[in-house]
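Example 3.2
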Amino acid sequence: MALRERVQEELFGRFDRPLVVGFASHVELEVLGGGLTESVVMQATDKIQNEAESVFRTQMEEFGLQNISKVDPYQAQGNRSPSEFQRFTGSYPVDSVEIDGVDIPNIEEESFTLESGQFKVAGLLATHQKGDAILVTGGVYPNDNYIRSKEWEITSGVDLDLTVNLGLRPNIHRSDVVNFAQNVYV
């Protein structure tokens, strides 16, 4: 089962958003009447990087992310290109989860509610040169596992814990985004 569907099912349908998304685009560089100089490539890369960051932020907002911030860059391990990614963070709001029809002895409540929260997401964006093209690659992924819990005291010696733990593994999802970005070819 895909991650999005699994999370939607585990949160009783209260959350239905894309969680891991990759993207790639390329810009072919051509100079009329001459060759590409290092200076031209650097200027073009800087302009494309600035525009890509703006578009990336807008796309994150359109996906429903809130509190989007540009934070410290992420440096991928190894010697594959790209190795440095601009990193963004944000969050999806998650509605409270209510479970109705609960029948547990010694508890008067018939429903349990886990309070709303924030589902943290990170995005990676890289702009790098491949031949006469500039590639813009990256993606978004869960930046943290989502865990919510609530405890009820049934008696002085017995507590009831209700926990939602989505079992997300941000390091693996980040690695998937980096591998995707590093395997894009023109």
